[in-house]
């Protein structure tokens, strides 16, 4: 999708008409914060995906019952589901909006 100068100017004029010139900096700041949070969360998810999973197996004859400490150490830490991550991001965005509103008030 190629946007030329006339299209960008038209979009900017529409934004000014919709939100007003005074609200645009706050809107841009909120969008920037949200994007930073989103990027941080997606990079964490990518880092989790990049970690190699090492599985060590022993021959069946040599396997021994695991102790409770070994089971606890071997248990994977529960990763939040995408729905849980989305809910947390929404909570963070709501907190950011609330703090932005509090900052605006004298």
Radius of gyration: 24 Å
Give a count of the beta strands, DSSP E runs of length 2 or more: 0
Question: How much helical structure, as a percent, in the residues?
Answer: 55-70%
Distance between the termini: 43 Å
Sketch the topology as an H/E string, one letter per element. Answer: HHHH
Question: Explain this structure to me?
Answer:
With 106 residues, the protein is mainly α. It has a domain at 82-106. It has helices spanning 5-19, 24-50, 68-74, 82-104. Helix 2 packs antiparallel against helix 4. The relative contact order is 0.09. The model has no long low-confidence stretch (mean pLDDT 76).
Topology:
Elements: H1 5-19, H2 24-50, H3 68-74, H4 82-104
Helix pairs in contact: 2-4
